[in-house]
Design brief:
Shape: globular
Structural class: alpha/beta
CATH superfamily of the largest domain: Response regulator
Strand order of the largest sheet: 2-1-3-4-5
Number of strands: 5
Number of domains: 2
Largest sheet: 5 strands, parallel
Number of helices: 10
Distance between the termini: 34 Å
CATH class of the largest domain: Alpha Beta
Length: about 220
Amino acid sequence: MTIRVVLADDQNLVRAAFAMLVESARDMEVVGQAATGREAVELARTGRADLVVMDIRMPDLDGIEATRLIAADEDLAGVRVLVLTTYDTDEHIVEALRAGASGFLVKDTRPAELLDAIRTVAAGDALLSPGPTARLVARFLSAPAVPALTVGGPEGLSGREREVLTLVARGLNNTEIAAALGLSPLTAKTHVSRIMGKLGARDRTQLVIVAYESGLVTPGDAGRA
């Protein structure tokens, strides 16, 4: 299946470079290029996109608001958003995740990593791995000024589901969760899907946010299985 990608960045050269890279992959095609957040939302709709690679800082409508509009639109329910960030300086990244983005990566990432990130997010997985990425998310989620995510908490989960949620928040994929808990990968995947259903979470990224907000996982736990 070909992944239909919209590229949103206000810098023409950046968009052009990303477009050449995406078009070089046999399983992807660029269906639109946007210079503003508003254009990104429109192109996600008209281009029947699977994924939007979204810069945060754009004129007219920034990437956070554009992400929020995409996530709130029932007609765009299948569209994933992969946010670009400068990492150390962009403190809006968790706002974007709360708005509905499924992951983020740094702008100076290697070409192969960008393509892998697009495949990961398009497949419905969160792009949140152990280490610096998880610690960055944890640090901002611990800030009291950040508004709460409007999904359920882990109170209604079973003990096993809480264990699975904890491992998701620590950055483990389904295979790693299965190995850690002595389950089959299919069972681990089923647990993750059931947890998302119970909490009303859009994807694994929101599960990570719920785990941190509820205190099930603390910033000191990030990246530690």
